[in-house]
Design a protein that fits this description.
Elements (H helix, E strand, L loop, with lengths): L1 H22 L5 E7 L12 E7 L4 E8 L26 E4 L5 E6 L1 E6 L1
Antiparallel strand pairs: 1-2, 2-6, 3-5, 4-5
Length: about 120
Amino acid sequence: MITVRRMQICFCLLLLLALRAQAAEPHPVQARLLANVEEVAPGMAFHLGVELRMAPEWHTYWRFSGDAGMPTQVEWELPDRFAAGELQWPLPHKYEEAGGLTAYGYADETMLLAG
């Protein structure tokens, strides 16, 4: 009887953990692609922006993340004969991470530009 009772308690605890995980932010960082034009023509230059919006208490890392974290990466999948210029990164914020590590990145929102 004790074994069944313990199994019931474990099941309830696992169910509570699963519900808590499901209630967590499903995508803590939202990315949106923006352009400075509505149409393009052959040979026309234009700029793209990758807008990143972070959930509260979240941040992304700069191209040189520091001691912790992985740098944010943008991988373009472009049509034939299109090319993206080098990303322009805004100045990052400095974060003191656990264990005395230093990291550089962005909270709230930021925009990475390419031309």
